[in-house]
């Protein structure tokens, strides 16, 4: 997992709950917490932090991931404004992520594994998003979609059609932005 | 003064002096933190820039290498549009050459489409289109001698293919000139479904690419000048095209009224490109010189042997890279011509001193005689050319004489090609499915092979044998192959519906070598799986050994990647081709398909031995074996007894449309009843 994710998580936790809580999470997860955006860290570390946050806040890990994804989007928009420019809606922005995330991550870290999203419109005009990642972080993707919708002043309605954690080959979500 | 700050949740109360050392520490920490963020940002920027410039350099390097190796301008243009599209993630690239006579930009049928099936109409509207200076996108580049960008093809006032581009969902475009001196000699245009961002690095790199391609143009023009200025090919000393045109036209004028008495042999080398690629142009050139000398000897011997009191004059010309024409004036018997062709084959195939190991050089020969239907020598030459292509199609080292039937066959083929284009446009293809039976599971239907059919408007349902060769020759097969992949997955996905059982029937899809080696094949398979929502484990891709022979390393990579998602792979027609053990060992296949010819010939002990050997081999390599072409109960019982895992053939069911095929998911279970007696009888 890329250091930037840990940086964003730290910022989100600190903003919402104070610096002490982040320290507590690191202590509970037995992590030293020195993360730079240039580095890569074991996936287990992020899962350990999510587990601790889930215990501490008494919400499910899935809720932690969704909350984090949503909270991280304004920070991403601040750091990487260029990727948001030129988009007028969350749909258009979300459909560009393969072209943003992949080249960007690969530029910085050769050999990095990235999630790949497939897009298609269903009969009702909803955006179908197919997602295949060994990390199975579809709830984080869910949060990012909500955060992106906030950014463009929209409300997203998401439905998880299938999930890798339930043995499906792909996670599939349907997203609608009712006007 | 001291204040108490309670940090929520920390469980610790910190005592902070407003002007004490703690505050100093906090400020230091904040400074350190912002310095770290800034350092990270600087490093990220640097890494990004470095990566970008490396990628540009790699692209430029690939194109420079390609241009240096290119045989001619067209092949270097084709290579460049593909490289640029793949690099930039653009959907379509197309090249134009400037016509010296009309001053127009003329599409030279050098294009690349990432997803040809979706762009068929636009490819057709672009690949041989013509644009005058100032008109349309290529015309503007031609007039202004500088790149042009179109942000939105739907609203641009001077974009002539707007409707078809809009239908194909293309949204933006750019085009670049290629210069020879200060003259625009070619234009590359690119299209994308996404917005193209104009940026300086791209313009600089495209200018560099333009310089490299300009050099190829320069090289080709210089060669052409040499070839056309003199009457002789300066490499081999043979007459050239100009000399051939002069001599042949004079000879044609001298013919009697029935126009009999002139023969053209078109001799095209087989395997010459391989020598050029492997040993370089110098050796290739030396080889051509040697070939020319051998042809001279053939012609000289022919003149001596065939001239029984009849005047014969022969002329040899080199009319293309590895193509020669032998012109014979005077009455020649069929036997003498046939002996001459045999002599040419024999001499051309003999070993060459300049290439150490047998270079595998041969000739394909087409022969045409002048007759009353010809109006000039060009028509005789054209007939001989067509015969030569027919010889090429038959295999290396063959001769074909032109006949009216052959001419008719070629015209029919051209008609078929036109109809195929219509068929693709109007979606006249359909899929049939043939059941595959699992011997290990009560002979139930475990899957289907998808087989393409053409619902021809006049001729009814056509099988692939009747149209795929023409589709392959004309390059149309990529559209059909892609449709088959998508339609087969969609059909099986529909059959499965929401059913998530473990033993759902699979669909087996034939993948052609050309399709398999497309740069986007892997991505395309994934996309089709995603769109159809079908479980990867219920899709089997069948490839033939031809794929492995072209590029075993790449084939293994592609198969590994596809299998990683759960897709199964099958080696089709096993036993008919090279059937090399080393391919089998290197390539990750889940199953082998025994070619139907062995099953048909099962009454012969040798065929049964071969099948048994294949089954044993597959078992040691942990592959399952599917027998194709099972037509009788005896064959069925014997194949089961030999240990085949699955069977397919008329005995179980003919290919039929999806509704009919999917209706019989279960086959009479009496198939599985095998007694020692039935086995003894069958074997």
Task: Give structural notes.
- The complex is a heterodimer of chains A (179) and B (683).
- With 179 residues, chain A is α+β, with helices and mostly antiparallel strands.
- Chain A is built from seven helices and four strands, in the order ααααααββαββ.
- Chain A has two domains: 3-58; 88-176, H-NOX domain.
- Chain A has helices at 3-17, 19-29, 43-57, 61-79, 90-95, 97-108, 138-151; strands spanning 116-121, 127-132, 157-162, 171-176.
- A four-stranded antiparallel beta sheet of chain A has the order 1-2-4-3, with helices on one face.
- In chain A, helix 2 packs across helix 3 (43-57).
- The radius of gyration of chain A is 16 Å and the shape is globular.
- Chain B has 24 helices and 23 strands.
- With 683 residues, chain B is an alpha/beta fold.
- Chain B folds into four domains: 3-58; 70-230, GAF domain (Beta-Lactamase, 2-Layer Sandwich), CATH 3.30.450; 241-402, Reverse transcriptase/Diguanylate cyclase domain (Alpha-Beta Plaits, 2-Layer Sandwich); 416-682, Alpha-Beta Barrel (TIM Barrel).
- In chain B, strands 14-15-17-18-19-20-21-22 form an eight-stranded mixed barrel, surrounded by four helices. In chain B, strands 5-4-3-8-7-6 form a six-stranded antiparallel beta sheet. A five-stranded mixed beta sheet of chain B has the order 10-11-9-12-13, sandwiched between helices.
- The longest helix of chain B is centred in the first third of the chain and has 49 residues, at 21-69.
- The chains are: A alpha+beta (179), B alpha/beta (683).
- The interface between A and B is medium-sized, with 25 and 28 residues.
């Amino acid at each position: 997992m890329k250091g930037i994710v840990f940086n964003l998580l730290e910022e989100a936790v600190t903003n919402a709950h104070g610096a002490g809580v982040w320290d507590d999470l690191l202590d509970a997860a037995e992590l030293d917490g020195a993360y730079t955006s240039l580095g890569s860290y074991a996936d287990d570390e992020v899962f350990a932090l999510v587990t601790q946050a889930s215990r501490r806040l008494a919400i499910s890990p899935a809720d932690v991931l969704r909350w984090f994804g949503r909270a991280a989007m304004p920070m991403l928009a601040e750091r990487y404004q260029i990727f948001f420019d030129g988009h007028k809606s969350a749909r258009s922005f979300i459909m560009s992520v393969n072209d943003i995330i992949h080249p960007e991550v690969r530029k910085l870290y050769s050999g990095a594994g990235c999630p790949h999203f497939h897009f298609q419109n269903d009969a009702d005009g909803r955006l179908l998003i197919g997602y295949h990642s060994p990390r199975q972080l579809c709830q984080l993707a869910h949060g990012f979609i909500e955060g992106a919708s906030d950014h463009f002043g929209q409300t997203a309605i998401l439905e998880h059609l299938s999930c890798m954690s339930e043995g499906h080959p792909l996670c599939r979500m349907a997203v609608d932005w009712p006007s | 003064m001291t204040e108490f700050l309670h940090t929520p949740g920390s469980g610790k109360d910190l005592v902070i002096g407003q002007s004490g050392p703690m505050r100093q520490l906090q400020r230091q920490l904040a400074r350190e933190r912002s310095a770290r963020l800034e350092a990270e940002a600087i490093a990220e920027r640097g890494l990004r820039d470095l990566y970008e410039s490396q990628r540009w350099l790699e692209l430029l390097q690939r194109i420079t290498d390609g241009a240096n190796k290119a045989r001619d301008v067209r092949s270097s243009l084709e290579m460049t549009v593909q490289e640029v599209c793949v690099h930039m993630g653009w959907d379509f690239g197309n090249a134009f050459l400037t016509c010296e006579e009309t001053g127009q930009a003329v599409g030279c049928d050098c294009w690349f489409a990432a997803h040809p099936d979706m762009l068929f109409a636009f490819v057709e509207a672009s690949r041989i289109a013509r644009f005058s200076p100032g008109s349309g996108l290529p015309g503007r580049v031609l007039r202004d001698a500088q790149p042009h960008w179109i942000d939105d093809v739907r609203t641009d006032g001077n974009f002539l293919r707007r409707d078809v581009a809009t239908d194909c969902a293309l949204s933006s475009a750019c085009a670049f000139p290629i210069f020879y001196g200060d003259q625009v000699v070619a234009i590359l245009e690119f299209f994308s479904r996404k917005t193209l961002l104009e940026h300086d690095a791209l313009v600089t790199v495209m200018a560099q690419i333009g310089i490299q391609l300009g050099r190829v143009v320069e090289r080709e023009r210089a060669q052409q000048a040499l070839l056309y200025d003199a009457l002789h090919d300066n490499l081999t000393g043979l007459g050239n095209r100009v000399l051939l045109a002069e001599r042949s036209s004079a000879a044609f004028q001298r013919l009697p009224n029935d126009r009999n008495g002139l023969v053209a042999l078109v001799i095209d080398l087989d395997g010459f490109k391989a020598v050029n690629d492997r040993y370089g142009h110098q050796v290739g050139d030396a080889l051509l010189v040697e070939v020319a000398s051998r042809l001279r000897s053939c012609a000289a011997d022919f003149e001596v042997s065939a001239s029984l009191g009849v005047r014969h004059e022969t002329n040899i010309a080199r009319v293309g890279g590895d193509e020669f024409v032998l012109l014979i004036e005077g009455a020649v018997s069929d036997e003498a011509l046939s002996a001459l062709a045999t002599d040419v084959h024999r001499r051309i195939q003999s070993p060459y001193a300049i290439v150490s190991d047998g270079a595998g050089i041969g000739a394909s020969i087409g022969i045409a005689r002048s007759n009353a239907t010809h109006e000039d020598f060009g028509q005789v030459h054209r007939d001989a050319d067509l015969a030569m292509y027919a010889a090429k199609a038959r295999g290396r080292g063959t001769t074909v004489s032109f006949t009216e039937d052959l001419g008719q066959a070629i015209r029919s083929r051209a008609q078929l090609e036109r109809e195929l284009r219509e068929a693709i446009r109007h979606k006249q293809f359909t899929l049939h499915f043939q059941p595959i039976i699992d011997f290990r599971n009560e002979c139930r239907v475990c899957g289907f092979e998808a087989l393409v059919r053409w619902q021809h408007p006049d001729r009814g349902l056509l099988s692939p044998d009747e149209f795929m060769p023409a589709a392959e020759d004309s390059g149309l097969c990529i559209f059909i192959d892609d449709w088959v992949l998508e339609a087969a997955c969609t059909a099986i996905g529909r059959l499965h519906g929401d059913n998530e059982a473990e033993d759902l029937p699979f669909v087996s899809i034939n993948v052609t070598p050309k399709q398999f080696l497309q740069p986007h094949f892997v991505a395309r398979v994934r996309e089709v799986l995603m769109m159809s929502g079908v479980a990867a484990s219920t899709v089997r891709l069948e490839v033939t050994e031809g794929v492995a022979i072209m590029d075993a390393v790449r084939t293994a990579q592609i198969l590994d990647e596809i299998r990683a998602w759960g897709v199964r792979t099958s080696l089709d027609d096993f036993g008919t081709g090279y059937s090399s053990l080393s391919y089998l060992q290197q390539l990750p296949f889940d199953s082998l398909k025994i070619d139907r010819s062995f099953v048909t010939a099962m009454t012969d002990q040798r065929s049964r031995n071969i099948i048994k050997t294949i089954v044993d081999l597959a078992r040691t390599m942990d592959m399952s074996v599917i027998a194709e072409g099972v037509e009788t109960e005896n064959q069925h019982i014997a194949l089961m007894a030999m240990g085949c895992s699955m069977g397919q053939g008329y005995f179980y069911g003919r290919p039929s449309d999806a509704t009919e095929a999917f209706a019989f998911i279960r086959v009479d279970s009496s198939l599985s009843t095998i007694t020692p007696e039935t086995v003894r009888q069958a074997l």
